[in-house]
């Protein structure tokens, strides 16, 4: 079994904000797969079974970003999911808008959602796809990540989300993460 969790904030006021890239990515995948939402453990989630019979859960926590780990750990324990079968999608202030970076391990980079996940997993060795949202140093970081993209940047993000959707589909269908890193990062 695999888990793909998108980090974001619940509620209409946060929809399409920079901090909700993870939710946007999940929405792209579940729309492609025509999946219907369910609720459990304070999350909206979707179930999918691959052609090889492996079950995949796509999860959007319904608490705030900094509590993402609380939702993840409930699913991990309930379904007994191995840490190597977890993929997290998040925004990244350190990369230009739309730049995608696949990482098999590493620090949170100051991202509170990733900090929460590291805390509950007691590990930094989980897979993640980070999508660049850039950074505006003239703004407070919290205000910046909770703002929406310009129309020009939204087009870039939409293209990136299509690529993220393809990466997720390849991973859940058995392509190794290292191979995906090599393909999309040009480093492994």
The CATH class designation is Alpha Beta
Number of strands: 7
Largest sheet: 7 strands, mixed
Strand content: 15-25%
- Kindly report the name of the CATH homologous superfamily: Peptidyl-tRNA hydrolase
Radius of gyration: 15 Å
- What string gives the helices and strands in order? EHEEEHEEHEHHH
Question: What average pLDDT do the residues reach?
Answer: 90
Oligomer: single chain
CATH architecture: 3-Layer(aba) Sandwich
CATH topology-level fold name: Rossmann fold
Helix count equals 6
Measured distance between first and last alpha carbons = 24 Å
Total tally of structural domains: 1
Structural overview:
Helix 1 crosses helix 5. The longest helix is centred in the last third of the chain and has 22 residues. The two termini are 24 Å apart. By secondary structure, this protein is α/β, with parallel strands linked by helices. The protein has one domain: Peptidyl-tRNA hydrolase (Rossmann fold). Helix content is 37%, strand content 21%. A seven-stranded mixed sheet has the order 2-3-4-1-5-7-6, sandwiched between helices.
């Amino acid at each position: 079994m695999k888990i793909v969790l998108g980090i974001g904030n619940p509620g209409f006021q946060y929809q399409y904000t920079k901090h909700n890239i993870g939710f946007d990515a999940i929405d792209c995948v579940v729309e492609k797969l025509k999946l219907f939402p369910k609720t459990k453990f304070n999350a909206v989630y979707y179930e999918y079974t691959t052609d090889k019979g492996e079950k995949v859960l796509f999860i959007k926590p319904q608490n705030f970003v900094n509590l993402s780990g609380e939702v993840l750990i409930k699913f991990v324990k309930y379904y007994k999911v191995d840490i190597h079968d977890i993929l997290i999608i998040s925004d990244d202030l350190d990369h230009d808008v739309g730049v995608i970076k696949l990482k098999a391990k590493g620090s949170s980079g100051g991202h509170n959602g990733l900090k929460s996940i590291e805390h509950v997993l007691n590990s930094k060795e989980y897979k993640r796809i980070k999508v660049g949202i850039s950074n505006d140093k003239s703004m407070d970081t919290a205000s910046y990540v909770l703002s929406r993209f310009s129309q020009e940047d939204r087009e870039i993000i939409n293209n990136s989300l299509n690529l993220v959707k393809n990466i997720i589909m390849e991973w859940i269908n058995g392509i190794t993460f290292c191979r995906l890193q090599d393909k999309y990062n040009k480093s492994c």
